Amino acid sequence: MTGGRHLWIDASAGIAGDMLLGALLDAGADLGLVQRAVDAVVPGSVRLTTTVVTRAGLRARRAHVDVLTAGPPRRTWRDIRELLDALDAPVRTRALAVFARLADAEAHVHGTPVDDVHFHEVGALDSIADVVGVCAALENLSVTTVSAGEVALGSGTARTAHGELPVPVPAVTHLALGWQVRGGGPGELATPTGMAALRTLATGCETLPSMVVEAVGVGAGSRDTPDHPNVVRVMLGRTTAATETAVLIEANVDDLDPRLWPGVLTELVQAGAADAWLTPIVMKKGRPAHTLSVLSSPGYAAALRDLVFDLTTTLGVRETTVRKYPLARTFVGVDVRGRTIAIKIGHRDGTIVRVMPEFDEVAALACDLGRPEQAILAEAHAAAAAEGLTPGARLPA
């Protein structure tokens, strides 16, 4: 990790959206700012408050999400995606990513097209408030990188919209793929919303990294269970390590239908790879082939290695430990033809090094306007430059 502001999540007692939100508010996020972000998405529908409570003798902050409207509608992923357009770009980018991961998990376990998923509990107002609130709090706290430790999932059964289900519930098991987990205590300790937030926002599974701690937050769950503090802890600070440890997984493949490679690369990235790419090579006997390279944090390496075996025809992989030197990153929104486009900024010591519009947002706007993607990309770069977002300039306060 670089010297940016880093957040580490301790989910050793479980994870839920309201618990993570409570921890971030306890660490210093502005409740009024978080409320305004939620109001932008679902105006006048939710009120956020907090109280200080104890859980198994530990002090914690409980985030309360009070629903102010009767009978809120069930919403699909398509509905929620439209609602999130009201957010500022950096918060919207994170919130969209969390809900996209949650929608994918729900679609998988129910055998439903992603856009048609009815979210039931996760489409309810309190879960929208949890996800938007967490993403707004991260932006307010100037968090640029996130990691998390092992997650306790719980045991027993849980009552859901689909009846009584075993713990962990199906969506949580899908979201847990590739992450280090354990059973933990009794009951449902990890919810789909909380697990989706952790898996989307955290780039790796690790123990507490080397960092100068600036704030600690403790978020409480609704239950107070003896001998099991029902809390999520976060630690916020400046990382002291100048680099990240990563795993490079590689395989040489000469007998895979080349039409399958785009899907292979997409699945690897969706499963947690930091990057995945192909290099043309010539193997023994002059056969043309490709080297598949997958860059991963250590916590994802085992799951990605298995996925390489599942998706390709390789008979073996090789792994090496490498050091990454990433730039700290942040997002700034700029206006392009009435649409807010997120600009990803790579910076070092407060100076901008790289400026790149989020291409998915550029492509979506180009499609809506019937314009070439190259033209909209150029307009996004021009809008960023007009805001002073150019290499060599100082990072905006």
Number of extended strands: 19
Distance between the termini: 21 Å
Largest sheet, if any? 4 strands, mixed
Secondary-structure element sequence?
EHHEEHHHEEEEEHEEHEEEHEEHEEEEHH
Key words describing this protein structure:
alpha+beta, Alpha-Beta Plaits, Ubiquitin-like (UB roll), 4-stranded mixed sheet, 11 helices, 32% helix, globular
Account of the protein in words:
The protein starts with a strand and ends in an 11-residue tail after the last helix. With 397 residues, the protein is α+β, with helices and mostly antiparallel strands. The chain has three domains: 5-239, no CATH class; 244-324, 2-Layer Sandwich (Alpha-Beta Plaits), CATH 3.30.70; 328-386, Roll (Ubiquitin-like (UB roll)), CATH 3.10.20. A hairpin with a 2-residue loop joins strand 17 and strand 18. Helix 10 (359-369) crosses helix 11 (373-386). It has helices at 17-26, 31-41, 77-83, 89-110, 125-140, 170-175, 192-201, 261-270, 301-311, 359-369, 373-386; strands at residues 5-10, 46-55, 58-67, 145-148, 151-152, 154-155, 157-160, 163-166, 181-182, 187-188, 211-220, 231-239, 244-253, 275-282, 288-296, 318-324, 328-336, 339-348, 351-357. It has a four-stranded mixed beta sheet. Strands 14-15-13-16 form a four-stranded antiparallel beta sheet, covered by helices on one side. The chain has eleven helices and 19 strands.
